[in-house]
Amino acid sequence: MPEIQTRAPSLTLDANTPAPPVKYVYDFSEGNKDLKELLGGKGANLAEMTRLGLPVPPGFTITTEACRAYLRTGAEPPELRDEVSAHLASLEATMGKRLGTGADPLLVSVRSGAKFSMPGMMDTVLNIGLSDESVDALARQSGNERFAWDSYRRLIQMFGKTVLGVDGDLFEDRIEELKRAVGAATDVELTAGHLRELVADFKRIVREQTGRDFPQEPREQMDLAIQAVFDSWNGDRARLYRRQERIPNDLGTAVNICAMVFGNLGPDSGTGVAFTRDPAGGHQGVYGDYLCNAQGEDVVAGIRNTVPLAELEALDKTSYDQLMSIMETLENHYRDLCDIEFTIERGKLWMLQTRVGKRTAAAAFRIATQLADQGLISEAEALQRVTGAQLAQLMFPRFDNGADATGAATHLATGLAASPGAAVGRAVFSSEAAVAWAGRGERVILVRRETNPDDLDGMLAAEGILTSRGGKTSHAAVVARGMGKTCVCGAEALEVDTKARRLSLTDRNGDAVVIGEGDLISIDGSSGKVYAGEVPVVPSEVVEYFEGGVDPLAPDTDDLVRAVHRIMTFADNVRRLRVRANADTAEDAARARRFGAEGIGLCRTEHMFLGERRELVEHLILAGTDEERAAALTALLPLQRADFTEIFEAMDGLPVTVRLLDPPLHEFLPDLTELSVRVALNDATPGTDPDTADTDHRLLAAVQRLHEQNPMLGLRGVRLGLVIPGLFSMQVRAIGEAAADRREAGGDPRAEIMIPLVGTVQELELVRDEAEQIIASIERERGVSLAITLGTMIELPRAALTAGQIAESADFFSFGTNDLTQTVWGFSRDDVEGSFFSAYLEKGVFGVSPFETIDVDGVGALVRAAVRAGRATRPDLKLGVCGEHGGDPYSVHFFHEAGLDYVSCSPFRIPVARLEAGRAAAD
Ligand code: ADP
Ligand code: MG
Ligand code: MG
């Protein structure tokens, strides 16, 4: 009888068993779309299309793991070369050709492709395998000499630029020079002879610039290109993009080697890009660009103008129909908008790439709901297809499209509506200028003939992007959509002169119009219109909907509003986190409520001490006797009470957390320097009213006494309450009486009193005891029950660390993540954001400011610990967050996961927080 195994087999390999070999190379037929981590997005999707039986040229993918090994050690892993050789041999066998050799040489492309599509990675090199020898073979085999030399010059150009690091302009300038010399308007007009001449020139440029000849050995070309892809992972542009998009630095990129197919073989060939739906608006239809007799990059580069994809039907109906059917297959398979790169070689369609496509915010909402309607995705998936950042974008104002709404601005030209939104800014003509002007706090519009990856910094700095060339799939359009920036491209009427830093055009009257650097322009990414001057903007209809001004179910309501409504409704149904507002006034409270706030998480009382009330505060601070102090407080009481009454009314039936006075007192007093000057003048001026002079002297003394080196860590919050007798009591009384008034008026006030900056439970107990007595006495006097709860902010590390003790005296915690971030890191937000933060972001110490997105590892760890300890003491402890982070999408997911009950944020961010709380729960 076989022995029955009672223990799992040991996992330790004995010393003689070799470790399983790592597999560094996958044939396209071996992968699938779920292997993005390993094969990169491009490789995984090429594999998926291969599996689906779509016409993909054969090839193989070198894994991200090989790249990581290379980046770790600085050398390719030793097994890689052999594995590549084996896959190359099998590719050669499949194709019946040898790489760069023989009468019908095999050519390949070497293409980078990380898990996330990333601008800044190495550009693809096409036509690898061509050399002085194989170019002749290709010419003979194709019967097209022009094509062979065109392909060869492209190889030297792309290889020279991206692999050998030669300045690309040297090649471009040479092409322009030649075109001018022979009178050719476009590159298609260059003959085989011209291209042969260019090849000789390009080889010379490579030799001059790199000190070596362009490599003639096909395998060497391929290996150098593979290595260059690995190296490009750490290029500046790639790093900048990863930081911006929070993509981890250690993923590495895959490399795809793909047999070439040729779109530049003549008029029955071409190349294009297509979308299964409109990535700008989200509607269904035929969207894409096609370029006849061209290879790969020509479409995206915007070098020649493309024709709309629909025109392909007339050019090549068979390929067009096949493409439409493939697009349907892909969309049903991926269950999402796909974008596609294809090439037609002498009437045969080839698929070169697909991926789930980038889209604008409006398209994201529309497409998600369309797909849900089609039954392709569930409501929960639809919710995951949109983000809070996209919703925020839809809440930005847009240009008024009404007839006379352009104000003083004049319509200059119309380009293509590439990425929606309204942008107004100063025209700048280079990435550097964009960064420089934006650095001075100016809004800028980056104006270029066409953009390329070197413009990334400028695009990031700009409000919007305007180009005079290129289609809706040009670099500018694609990147702008990805960044959520407004973009108008291909505004051909504009003559953009980047050297002279201006754009010019001839207007309808035949007059020349010139816009120089720094002039205000406006661009409308939804209509493609470009204006000189500033166009007035109108609020978004999505905001109007949130404000309650649009009925989302009315038949004539924009489908965008309907989509937003549907997704928000679903998010509200599934989310666990409640969403409250930070609001200090009744108007803010009312607005927040319309936006869906379920209470106020932070009502600051500071502003109630400003304006005309400053004088009363001065009396309070200057009071020499208990009577004087009591008089000042008595005067403040009714004012505070009225404030609270209004807010409780606006938030009737919902909780309102009122924070007792937090900032240091000197903030309510005159500025030290100003006051010193005033006192000196008083003293020097005979006849000054002695009372005024005396008050000023006493004020100055108080300001000096209260002056702190480090007010953030000084006399503020609960400390103020404990050293200024009667201050907190007055506030508590105002809250209690306001609640009693509301109750008597038939309302339902739900007051929560919050004590700021508590570091130890003793502070809280002192305030709490007094507050409870006051509330009890109001309840007795007025004969009502107020059910006011008392809690604290957790905004000091000590509070978080002793949360178990503090919870004994608190009904609720609200994490004050702004102060908590300051105190955990030991830096003051007011001081550091303008000083070393940019350097820290630059050096990658943080991917993003910890004031913007919660620092999960540090601040977040304290939040988690305090949640655990607090709930251990008091299982029904209510937990919320009221820092800026409450409206930050990424942070909302953290707070959901940390088990908080609610987040609180500024009124405008509430829809974003609701949506993200829904996404966190449905995830
Ligand atoms: P990117 O990531 O910049 O889109 P790709 O690797 O997709 O780079 O390639 C750039 C261009 O070259 C695309 O238009 C693509 O379709 C084209 N291309 C890539 N490989 C081939 C190939 N084997 N044959 C023909 N065209 C190709
Ligand atoms: Mg591509
Ligand atoms: Mg605080």
UniProtKB/TrEMBL annotation:
Q: Which residues form the Pyruvate phosphate dikinase AMP/ATP-binding domain?
A: 78-305, 311-365
Q: Which UniProt keywords are given for this protein, alphabetically ordered?
A: ATP-binding, Kinase, Magnesium, Metal-binding, Nucleotide-binding, Pyruvate, Transferase
**Where along this sequence does the record place binding of Mg(2+)?**
E795, D819
Which residues are listed for substrate binding in this entry?
R604, R659, E795, G816, T817, N818, D819
Q: Which domain of life is it from?
A: Bacteria
Q: Which Pfam families match?
A: PEP-utilizers, PEP-utilizers_C, PPDK_N
Annotated family? Belongs to the PEP-utilizing enzyme family.
Its protein name is Pyruvate, phosphate dikinase
